[in-house]
Specification:
The chain is an alpha+beta fold and 260 residues long. It is built from 7 helices and 7 strands, in the order H-H-E-H-E-H-E-H-E-E-H-H-E-E. A hairpin with a 2-residue loop joins strand 6 and strand 7.
Length: 260
């Protein structure tokens, strides 16, 4: 095979760059469409609820339900905005080669309880419940804390909870627990839309959604698990999922040297 001339090599490089640019543009358009859909759904629900509240014929009890729904949808919006912000912040951290925020020792059980409380209204809206197994946290972590950047790890766990609320079956109890697997881990377990065995690693890739999820649930941004993995890896930890029929168990493990 003959060596291409400098002009031919340059043309080939230009063609390659144009192809990569078009791919990036297509992915960006799809991402923005998904973001718009994700934001419009809770905003639409909030608008509808507010309109209904203005109706004087609606009984007080019903208005209480509407207010709870507004609170729940507001929580969804906050979670989405935090994810979009996290995308930008993680890129900056990656470029710096370090965290911009200083890691601090954090109580994992307290973090789990606070996050469960944050997502409880959303779970209640769709007839689900989040339970924190406090005993498992005491057994796993004892009096030790984990050296982490709190807002990053909280968002990673939030993304697992948000997915559990979205994909779990109605009437399901979503369990947040701790386990040595084999290093100390925060675990989110639920029963719902199944994950295929060949997708257990792919679901942590950016923009990837499981085949069952795409069929049964409205489009998402496809960045929740990707961001969670980025955060966990930056802390020297691991994230993975184990499946058993419709049961999905997600693990976020921390290296032992982060326990203080």
């Amino acid at each position: 095979m003959s060596t291409p001339t400098p002009e031919e090599a340059l043309r080939q490089q230009i063609v390659k760059l144009e192809s990569e640019l078009e791919k990036t543009r297509k992915e960006s358009r799809q991402y923005l469409q998904n973001v718009a859909h994700q934001l419009s759904a809770p905003l639409g629900a909030i608008k509808w609820s507010i309109e209904a509240l203005k109706d004087e014929s609606i009984p007080i009890k019903r208005k209480g339900v509407l207010l709870s729904s507004i609170y729940s949808q507001g929580g969804i919006l906050v979670h989405l905005v935090k994810n979009f912000s996290l995308m930008s912040n993680l890129e900056q951290d990656h470029e710096l080669g370090q965290f911009r925020d200083k890691p601090e020792p954090e109580d994992m059980m307290l973090m789990a309880i606070n996050l469960a409380n944050d997502f409880q209204p959303q779970a209640f809206d769709v007839e689900k419940k989040i339970v924190v197994d406090e005993g498992s946290f005491r057994k796993c972590f004892g009096s030790k804390r984990v050296l982490v950047v709190k807002n990053l790890v909280a968002q990673a766990i939030s993304n697992l909870l948000e997915n559990a609320v979205k994909y779990a079956d109605r009437g399901t109890i979503i369990t947040l627990l701790a386990q040595n697997a084999p290093t100390p881990s925060v675990v989110v377990r639920s029963i719902g839309v199944p994950i295929r065995s060949d997708e257990c690693e792919k679901i942590f890739e950016r923009n990837y959604r499981g085949s069952e999820a795409k069929q049964k649930i409205a489009p998402g941004t496809g960045i929740g698990l990707y961001l969670a993995k980025r955060v966990v890896v930056m802390h020297g930890g691991k994230i993975w999922v184990e499946i058993a029929d419709k049961e999905s168990t997600f693990y976020i493990s921390f290296p032992k040297e982060r326990l203080l």
